[in-house]
Amino acid sequence: MHNVTDAGVRVPPGDGGVCDDSGMEFSRLPVRSVGEHPLNPIDRGVWPATLAPVTRLLDDGLELGAATVLVGENGAGKSTLVEAIAMAYGLSGEGGSSSARLETRASESPLWDHLQLVRNAGASKRGYFLRAETMHGVFTYLEQIGSPGAAYHERSHGESFIEFAADRFRGAGLWILDEPESALSFSGCLALLGLLKSRLADGRSQVILSTHSPVLAALPGATIYEVGDAGLERREWMDLALVDDYTRFLLDPQARLDEL
Q1: Which among 169, 77, 160, 78 has a CA at the least distance from the CA of 129?
Q2: Which contacts (CB < 8 Å, 24+ apart) does range 42-50 have?
Q3: What DSSP assignment string belongs to 23-37?
């Protein structure tokens, strides 16, 4: 696949890599960075390249650590970015693994075909893409192909989502999630947060997450980007507009309602 290239990358000691004879460490995370493919640039005058965060990614590229969280309003470009990264990695655009062949109605942007992912040499090539809006179709697809333990329709939506993530996010790999909170209660978000934290502990797994949830945005160790008209702006959790909005509403819901 032309969208992926390998690179041996040294990282500071203690960052979860494997030491060589010099005492330096090589990262074991699946993907080092994402940027525009030099041999297949996209037309900058056509959507989605006209979206500010997409333009920023194409112009400057994006380094990926163990966990990357994208937050922002609907339509800002969060899902467009995570979908494109997932597909450039070789995952199904409707959710699933690289071997999934679920295709209902094609709605994915062409951005993925113009991206290049730089892998860390020797890292896992496994991955999974979970998007809450297509999970019903993914569950049905897995039942139809006889996937082991695929009776997810027999559980509630939230329960099946958590169980599905626990089943599929095993071992090292790249785990990409698009707005999973839409399937989850508050406690469900906490459960998913704990699951993702545990999967990152081995230093060989990587998470990319788009979310409207301040709970999920608090993923330990994550680099957080606010996605919007300014492109991609790195933020601390406490400085997110998302966190401020939730905090002010919970402190005085009537005052916020009066503003509507």
Answers
A1: 169
A2: 42/110, 42/111, 42/114, 47/109, 48/77, 48/80, 48/84, 48/109, 48/111, 49/111
A3: S-EE--SSEEEEEE-
Encoded tokens for 139: 């569950």
- The CATH code of domain 4-258 reads 3.40.50
Closest to 179 in 3D by CA, of 86, 69, 84: 69
Dist CA 229 CA 51 (whole Å): 8
Report which of 123, 74, 98 is spatially closest to residue 1, judged by C-alpha positions. 98
Range 60-79 burial, b when 16+ CB lie within 10 A, else e: eebebbbbbbbbbeeebbbb
Residue whose pair of structure tokens reads 């990926």 in the numeric block: 64
What pLDDT digit, counting tens, does each position of 191-235 carry?
A: 999 999 999 998 999 999 999 999 999 999 999 999 999 999 999
**135-175 per-position pLDDT tens digit:** 656 666 666 665 655 555 555 556 778 888 888 888 899 99
CA 150 to chain centre: 23
Indicate the domain borders of the chain: 4-258
